[in-house]
Write a structure and sequence with these properties.
With 415 residues, the chain is α/β, with parallel strands linked by helices. It has three domains: 29 residues, no CATH class; 59 residues, DNA polymerase, domain 1 (Orthogonal Bundle); 286 residues, Aldolase class I (TIM Barrel). The N and C termini lie far apart (50 Å). The protein is globular, with a radius of gyration of 23 Å. Helix 11 links the parallel strand 12 and strand 13. Helix 3 packs across helix 4. The strands form three sheets. It has a nine-stranded mixed sheet with strand order 3-4-5-6-9-10-11-12-13, sandwiched between helices. A two-stranded parallel ribbon has the order 1-2. The structure holds iron/sulfur cluster (SF4).
Length: 415
């Protein structure tokens, strides 16, 4: 499809006034991505008893819900404060709202959280949660505390499973089931906040334990852009959770047409799963590269709005022994990203059962990092976190599915 489009572009450029422009092509490709994404829409947010979930509604949608039951717009502001600033889930405890209205709201709405199906804590304080949604689907969310300061990152999932099959990624072995709704994405963050008791939302200079969001969990966030964008808009709202866009990083495998839109509309930090510097290898490791090759990806990084030395683009590079970790690869990487305000995160590969890669040797990793750093780029080697728990993204969900399958099997044997 993409190849056909590229061919069309070169032809149309030659024919002059009727030519299709590059931006029209990108718009068409974006429309195609959004239409495909809609095929994996999350289920409706209405419970079997008819009550509606409020988490995940935009401010306007919340106003409309209240308007429909004859309430004034200021009630939406009050509710927003209770839901996102105070973290309240029980209408009866919303002291600024009359008892009548509390009851009225409780009959019609819920303020939910995903159920914690499993949680694991590592010796290094990393905590992994398996969250289950109302339809039984599960995703992983990880809290990674800063080892030195009282703050930390919450790694959120955006889809159940993934379509992209990156070869080094455990989640890539799971088929895409569906997209998460905005409420399910925000709900992961809120549920982790519940676990750490970080309500009300800290304001101003008050330190936050959950200080950053990274969209690096299960799924490709730019293949669920509509819900991810809505969720991040809710998270950034200053009268609620109030996390600044500078504290949010979206990681993509390189969905080029959506990168521009993400930069223009959300302006969050960008991380790119690069992992290889030549198309033939990247085609293998990150198959999406066959659609959007390295040259297009790097061009999209160069034009990403707001990228500066203060807000650098992060290139993620998983170090695979004998595959992508040679000094020549490091030098090619430096040439590739020349001129982009960037840093390179070197990630020691975290092996999982069935993976065909091995982590790079420490000396190779150091040599690679030195080459990148000597070229003027920060190249931190990410300390592996949570090695003592099922740390590779997607492993906990696979375990949970396996246990569920075993239980179903033994139940059917017993009956
Ligand atoms: S790395 Fe991300 S995009 Fe690639 S398969 Fe894993 S979850 Fe999907």
């Amino acid at each position: 499809m993409q190849q056909a489009m590229r061919k069309d572009l070169s032809i149309s450029n030659r024919v002059g006034s009727d030519a299709i422009t590059g931006s029209e092509l990108t718009d068409a490709e974006r429309a195609r991505i959004l239409a495909k994404s809609a095929l994996f829409s999350p289920p409706p947010t209405q419970l079997p008893d008819g009550r509606r979930e409020l988490v995940g509604l935009s401010r306007d949608e919340l106003k409309a819900e209240l308007d429909a039951i004859g309430e004034q717009p200021f009630r939406a502001k009050q509710l927003w404060h209770w839901i996102y600033h105070r973290g309240e889930t029980d209408f009866a405890r919303m002291s600024s709202i009359s008892r009548n209205l509390q009851q009225n709201l409780a009959e019609r709405f819920v303020i939910g959280r995903p159920e914690t199906a499993a949680a694991q804590a590592s010796a290094d304080q990393t905590r992994k949660f398996l969250f289950r949604f109302r339809d039984g689907q599960e995703v992983e969310t990880v809290y990674i505390p800063d080892p030195e300061e009282d703050r930390g990152a919450v790694c959120l999932s955006s889809q159940v499973g993934c379509t992209l099959s990156c070869r080094f990624c455990h989640t890539g072995t799971q088929r895409l089931v569906r997209n998460l709704s905005a409420g399910e994405i925000v709900g992961q963050f809120m549920a982790v906040r519940d676990a750490y008791g970080e309500w009300p939302s800290p304001t101003g200079d008050t330190p936050r334990l959950l200080s950053t969001i990274v969209l690096m969990g299960m799924g490709e966030p730019l293949y669920n852009y509509t819900n991810v964008a809505k969720a991040m808009t809710i998270v950034m709202d200053g009268e609620g959770i109030g996390l600044s866009r500078r504290r949010i990083t979206l990681s993509t495998s390189g969905v080029v047409p959506m990168m521009d839109r993400c930069g223009a509309e959300l302006g969050v930090n960008l991380a790119v799963s690069l992992h290889a510097v030549h198309n033939d290898l990247r085609d293998e490791l990150v198959p999406l590269n066959r659609k959007y090759p390295i040259e297009e990806l790097i061009a999209a990084c160069r034009r990403y709005p707001g990228a500066s030395n203060a807000r650098r683009i992060t290139f993620e590079y998983v170090m695979l022994r004998g595959v992508n970790d040679s000094p020549a690869d490091a030098r090619a990487l430096v040439r590739l990203i020349a001129g982009i305000p960037a840093k390179v995160n070197l990630i020691p590969f975290n092996p999982w059962p069935g993976s065909r890669f091995e982590p790079s040797r420490p000396a190779t990793l150091r040599q690679f990092a030195d080459i990148v750093m000597n070229a003027g780029y920060a190249a931190p080697v990410r300390t592996p976190r949570g090695r003592d728990i099922l740390a590779a993204c997607g492993q906990l969900r696979t375990e949970s599915k396996r246990t569920e399958a075993k239980q179903t099997e033994s139940r059917s044997r017993a009956s």
